[in-house]
Amino acid sequence: MTTIADLRRVLDQHADEVGVPQTVARTAGVHQRVAAVRRRRRAVAVGTLALVVLGGAAVAVVPRLGPAQPAAPTLLGRKAPTTMHALGFTYRTDGHGETFAGSGSFHLSESDQPRLFTWTTSPRSSVVLGLPDNTRWHSRESRFRDYVVVPAGESGTVQVSAPNGRVGIASYDLTGAPPPGYTKAGLTYRSDVAGTALLRAMVSDRGQVDLRGSFSVPDGAVAVAPVCSGLPADDVIHLAFDGSERTEVSGSQCDSSDFADAGSHVTSTFSAALRPGTEPGTAATMRMWVTHGDDDTQVVAAGSAPDLRMGLGVYGSLRSERVGGDDLPDRVEYLGHTWALRTIANGSTGGVHPSLPVSKVDRVIGIAWTNHGRIRVSFHAGTASGGGEFSGVGSGSIGDLWAAAGTTPTVTLTGGTGRYGIAAYERID
Description:
The chain is mainly beta. It folds into three domains: about 15-40 and about 180-320, Jelly Rolls, CATH 2.60.120; about 55-175, Jelly Rolls; about 325-425, Nucleoplasmin core domain (Jelly Rolls, Sandwich). Helices cover about 5% and strands about 50% of the residues. The strands form eight sheets. Strands 2, 5, 6, 7, 8, 9, 10 and 11 form an eight-stranded antiparallel β-sheet that branches. Strands 1, 14, 15, 17, 20 and 22 form a six-stranded antiparallel β-sheet that branches. A hairpin with a 2-residue loop joins strand 28 (about 375-380) and strand 29 (about 385-390).
């Protein structure tokens, strides 16, 4: 998550709650990423995966076999796996594969689900994938030992190259098998997200308007991941911990496409010591409820939101590093993999512009700042770029920026006064 925020709520009867002692946290505080992912998803129409060769010496392998489960293709003499796993999710072969002599490309059609791609080479060679969003993915692995997950909503041309030989690439669809964690009626909180454990999850019944539970306070900060759908237009969902309201959610922020991986949509992070003297292991309350507007204090009548679905997950303890006067998580997830913070560079407005050295490996970049006034953040790394304009006083951050191997990530921040920094994450799985 990056520099934005989001969501949710329901009943003090029996809402399903589950504590799962393991590991989950998202880019603690990088909230803008949440909004960007959701915008991307809302703009996506359901489609089917199409591997249409655009260039190179490509050979189609194993066409889709109607309603029967397709067999995995054999590429360059090696059978692709039937299933692959990424971040706890299971992907199954769609029966398609392509081979390219040196380089080639194919078209990826729109889908409301993520897709996974894996590859093999002959002879052994490095592989470079150019994804539709301009990400250039580098891999030294072959024999289907590495993969990349393309997010839902991405479409366009995928470039494939193996400078020292031939490459075969196979495609996979997300299955309905839930990952380890807590799932109710299609809403899932993973037991582990980027190395932080799920402490408690609760999911409402349809139409429930007041949802209550509790979790055990960890020794450190926590992250909360609320999701919802079906909230009436003028209603608001309130979110409170230990009796203290933390945030609220409007109907425009409710998106059921978040349900398949609700735990990844962290919207707020804060100290687990909710009150002075709170000891680790102390039970803390958590609540989501609906009112008619921001200032209304009364829970809406039962049955007044018949299509409402709500979920809330709490993860902890978060581990973070100080970057540019703000905190960034020490681990993030991106393109189906887990990445750990390795390098930090700090600067200030009107002073030093932070940059990171060239690396031989791909990196995910996060930017954080503390600032007064309107600012513009600009990021560049080779052909990749990002950033935006922000206003106000305080701290903020953005994440999921990409620095391909061999590029130098640089950041400039103009306007306002304050500090900012850049953090580089490297793959650890």
